[in-house]
Amino acid sequence: MARLSSKLRSVVAKDGDEVIGRGVMHFCPACQEAHIFWIERPKGGPTWTWNGSVDKPTVNPSILLFTTHDDDGNKLPEGTRRTLCHYFLHDGVVAFCGDCPHELAGQNVPLPDIPDSYGGGEG
């Protein structure tokens, strides 16, 4: 993981020595954890367009994350999932959609710096 800026880290997914995806990680102020948007997936899967800005990123389409667990960590019934987080990232602002299950639903928040605990030194 390489530091792109105080707000972004590059991510490379590998299967053994083979690169199977390249993405960008950022910190979600609502979930209080990192999320990744994938800009390249040679083996398939969803990808996003990114304007290349490391300080005021814009990503399309929206980022929609699901979970197959409830708030207590219990597995949901087979074949079901719930929205974990849903937002647009435009010009360095996270615009949380109304279907988010957290307190920032419907709000716009500047993209925060990634906490030092996430690593990603210079390079």
Description:
The protein is mostly beta strands and 123 residues long. It has one domain. The protein is 0% helix and 45% strand. It is built from no helices and nine strands. It has strands spanning 2-3, 9-15, 18-28, 33-40, 49-50, 59-67, 82-90, 93-96, 108-110. The strands form two sheets. It has a five-stranded antiparallel beta sheet with strand order 5-6-7-8-9, with no helix packed on it. A four-stranded antiparallel beta sheet has the order 1-2-3-4, with no helix packed on it. Strand 2 and strand 3 form a beta hairpin. The protein starts with a strand and ends in a 13-residue tail after the last strand.
Strand content: 35-45%
Oligomeric state of this protein: single chain
Distance between the termini: 9 Å
Number of helix segments? 0
Could you spell the SSE succession in H and E letters?
EEEEEEEEE
- Give the total of beta strands: 9
Class computed from helices, strands and strand pairing: mainly beta
Overall mean pLDDT stands at: 88
Given the C-alpha coordinates, what overall shape results? globular
Number of domains: 1
Question: pLDDT below 50 for ≥5 consecutive residues: which ranges?
Answer: none
Radius of gyration: 15 Å
- Biggest pleated-sheet summary: 5 strands, antiparallel
Main-sheet strand order equals 5-6-7-8-9
